[in-house]
Known about the structure:
Strand 7 (169-180) and strand 8 (185-196) form a beta hairpin. By secondary structure, the protein is an alpha/beta fold. The strands form two sheets. The protein has a seven-stranded mixed sheet with strand order 3-2-1-4-5-11-10, with helices on both faces. Strands 6-7-8-9 form a four-stranded antiparallel sheet, covered by helices on one side. The protein is globular. The longest helix is centred in the N-terminal third of the chain and has 15 residues, at 20-34. The protein has helices spanning 3-14, 20-34, 50-57, 69-80, 84-87, 122-134, 149-154, 216-225, and strands at residues 40-44, 61-66, 90-94, 106-111, 136-147, 160-165, 169-180, 185-196, 202-212, 228-235, 248-255. Helices cover 31% and strands 36% of the residues. It contains eight helices and eleven strands. The protein has two domains: 3-148 and 213-255, Vaccinia Virus protein VP39 (Rossmann fold), CATH 3.40.50; 151-212, Single Sheet (S-adenosyl-L-methionine-dependent methyltransferases). It starts with a helix and ends with a strand.
Amino acid sequence: MKIFDYYAHYYDLIYQDKDYESEVEFIKDLLQTFSPTANSILELGSGTGIHAVLLAEAGYTVRGVDNSAEMLDRAKSRQTRLEPEVAARLEFSYGDICAIDLEQKFDGAIALFHVVDYQTTSTKLQDFFQTARNHLNPDGILIFDFWYGAAVLSDRPSIRVKRLENDEVSLMRIAEPIMYPQLNQVEVNYQVLITDKANGNVQELKESHQMRYLFMPEIELFLENVGMRIIKSGEWLSDRPAGIDTWGVYCVAKVL
């Protein structure tokens, strides 16, 4: 079972404080600026479908792809609760975002919440960008965010504890990072303790997420190899220039 399959059941609880609405507004502004006629969007690594749903509610047709069956189940369940005209603009597919061929072209592609960082080898990264390029129309754009290497090395990852709860459970997640600077990677080891409020039973989950932080010159090279180039970049959401204090950076890349 893949790491996100175990994680999926508690994913939305863990990230209940994530500002999906602001993120989608940011994406919409980028789409309207750099591809104002865009209508169809491919989301690579669509997770439980929240970004996709918000984009569909804004009028876009969205196809999400993920390789976690559990995540897709939650996305499809969310889709069934939508108004019919919104649900009709959504489709979710199982697949490897570095290899899938949907035999369909899109006006834009997005990969959010550090999906790119999970492609830890140069081969996987190149395959990811090739997959995105293969599914874009001639004037299509790709929007993605990632851990910016300069900031990761300047403000190194540390142990973090997150506590959350809902009506059914209380949850504590401990994240312990290990850096591998020779690989440009961080291994984030998660211990998640879930307490059932009804009976006091405690469930423990352990996962290890391997992440690669990236630098602009290598991203430019990967994109050049697939016939794309960066046309805009900055800090995720704030749009400040990337610097040693900006862990989250985004790029907009356009087909050449």
